[in-house]
Design brief:
The structure is a homodimer. By secondary structure, the first copy, chain A, is of the alpha/beta class. The first copy, chain A, is 49% helix and 18% strand. Chain A is built from 13 helices and twelve strands. In chain A, the strands form two sheets. In chain A, strands 3-2-1-4-5-6-7-8 form an eight-stranded mixed β-sheet, with helices on both faces. Chain A has a four-stranded antiparallel β-sheet with strand order 10-11-9-12. Chain A starts with a strand and ends with a strand. At the A-B interface, helix 7, helix 8, helix 9, helix 10 and helix 11 of A face helix 7, helix 8, helix 9, helix 10 and helix 11 of B.
Chain lengths: 356, 356
């Protein structure tokens, strides 16, 4: 298969590597930055560096547009104009409504792989970036069935799990599970910094709640400004909904309405449990909390003990005490039997452990 | 020293254990639940179970009140009435304004140890729960200096780091670094659940942002309803501030004001960096991201390699891919040299690793 990749950064470069090695495709690449293009060739992300978009896509059967969100619309139109009539063109932008709404060309299918959002650059590209990753596709009533099927098959071959979704639902979903959490993390760190500054306080031991909630604060500005703006409709709707919900909680607090606060909290607990379990194999996820001395190697001991027993750790969070002399390791594992066995194994290391 | 502990759950029980073993104190305990009281005695948390509050505190030099927040005020008054004139009385409630404002007895000092918020029950009590933990104290102009000093010394002896703070600042700080993050986590999971339900979507790979931001959602309702309500003034003010900030971001998004969004994000980045570094020894914290196959043992390999080199892991977050076939391990370590060395060591395991 002849594949064109326009924009050979982390995502484009990884698409090229995976397509060359797993699809045996011939990959032509183009990038506005000549040094990036050369690096992509050196790293084996593309077979051939094209001098312009037209020669990259001139005889392609499949074209990936992997340029920054701000430049995406223009590039897609340029590629649709230059590509053959039977070439499927797809993008990898993190929001879809704006990109898809204006384009009825039967060759275009919007796309969004859930991978690699945290780093950038072809130097981090790798063949297996999409292994196991959900790759959203947004076909419309004008999309060619044959071309959609070609794209779907290619994505499966590079290890991804294609999933068709309506563009608006996609954008609301991303606002909810990615963009809003980033916005709230930003707000939380700024609030905390202001309270501390005003009170002349040094930062206390930040508990797990604060560290977890703000881990993504101030994410890569070059990428995230584009992401926020490109999904601004769904994000604004999400923010409005957040404000409404915060005001509802505020109302319950002001009224001192303990049953309302308790049931609101209980609702969140049920939702979190449901979200953790949706789409995961192996039964419900259980949380274990181990209290450990914060010496190097103690996490390794736990991970090794579980590893030997074949118990995989779904998620993990370390919460050190102020002076880092000890901490709590929260572990999430699948299934009742695994949780019970993991608890035994950790206790067997002389480490206090409880089911949360 | 003769110490009374009223309420012998996780915190009270741990105070008792630490006081007995580290202070060589004689500890009398009382709990409204006779079974809990008996368990505390069996576990060595107290020397003697008292039949009522008065006999527990009758000849105490130091009394800890470790009952649920909702019952705190009444218990403190009861204990102040029964305790000798030279007994210092302190509580461990997570909010301080309401408790402190009404009490001018020179024997009373409000307190709040930052430890153990995630579990409950004397069965989890342990001698070293407070080792290295910040323990806030809220002395006022009426507090006896001699009694404050006695309390301060006792807390240091059980391993804690006492820190005096104004009650209002304390409550705003807790609202900011603990209670607000919990509220926002609850809101985020409920929003996501609604979007998914409405769209008929299965949960996609939730990125690190969503998992991190919602890890504390639906925290123990019995404890947290009390915490939210007892700090409702500061929490409502925090919520108002959150709403104002969200509306400011919304405005920038609506106006399509990229520079405003970028500088807001940059501000958050600077604040997060400052918060991570405040009060931490060993230089700035660096984030490494390792891309790993999600097999049992791989986290152990990394932790072991760093452990052997004496590099401590300050914080860690695992982000699995959809099918759990691989994932990204984010690691935070102190100092430039440690970060560079850790990167070498992880790369030496054949694992792709980048500095974020």
């Amino acid at each position: 298969m002849r594949i064109a990749v326009v924009g050979v950064g982390l995502i484009g470069g990884s698409v090229g590597m995976a397509a060359r090695r797993r699809l045996n495709a011939e990959v032509r690449g183009y990038d506005a930055d000549a040094r990036v293009l050369e690096l992509a060739r050196e790293r084996g992300a593309i077979d051939q560096a094209s001098p312009d978009v037209a020669s990259a896509v001139g005889d392609a059967e499949l074209a990936f547009v992997a340029v920054p969100v701000g430049a995406l619309g223009e590039r897609i139109d340029e590629i649709l104009a230059a590509a053959p009539p039977d070439c499927v063109v797809t993008d990898v932008g993190s929001t879809k409504h704006t990109i898809v709404a204006g384009r009825s060309d039967q060759r275009f299918v919007g796309g969004h792989p859930l991978a690699g959002a945290e780093t950038a650059g072809v130097e981090h590209a790798r063949e297996d970036l999409f292994q196991g990753a959900t790759w959203y596709l947004t076909p419309t009533s004008t999309t060619s069935g044959v071309l959609y099927e070609r794209l779907h098959r290619a994505l499966t071959s590079v290890g991804a799990q294609p999933a068709a979704i309506d563009p608006d639902t996609h954008d609301r979903l991303m606002a909810s599970v990615s963009h809003l959490p980033h916005v709230l993390a930003n707000v939380l760190v700024t609030q905390a910094a202001n309270v501390l500054l005003e009170g002349g306080e040094a930062m206390p031991a930040t508990g797990p709640s604060f560290r977890d909630a703000t881990r993504v604060a101030g994410a890569n500005g070059a990428i995230w400004t584009d992401i926020y703006l490109s999904n601004r409709e769904a994000l604004m709707a999400g923010l409005d909904d957040t404000v409404r919900r915060l005001e509802a909680v505020r109302g319950a607090l002001e009224a001192g309405d303990a049953p309302a606060v308790a049931s609101w909290n209980e609702e969140a607990r049920a939702h979190r449990q449901a979200l953790l379990e949706t789409g995961l194999a192996g039964g419900p996820v259980h949380e274990l909390r181990a209290s450990v001395p914060n010496r190097p190697g103690v996490v390794a001991d736990i991970a090794l003990a579980l590893g030997r027993a074949g118990i995989n750790i779904v998620d993990m969070a370390l919460s050190p005490s102020t002076d880092f002399s000890r901490g709590v390791v929260a572990l999430w594992v699948h299934g009742d039997a695994n949780a019970a066995r993991a608890q035994e194994l950790i206790a067997g290391l002389g480490i206090a452990v409880t089911r949360a």
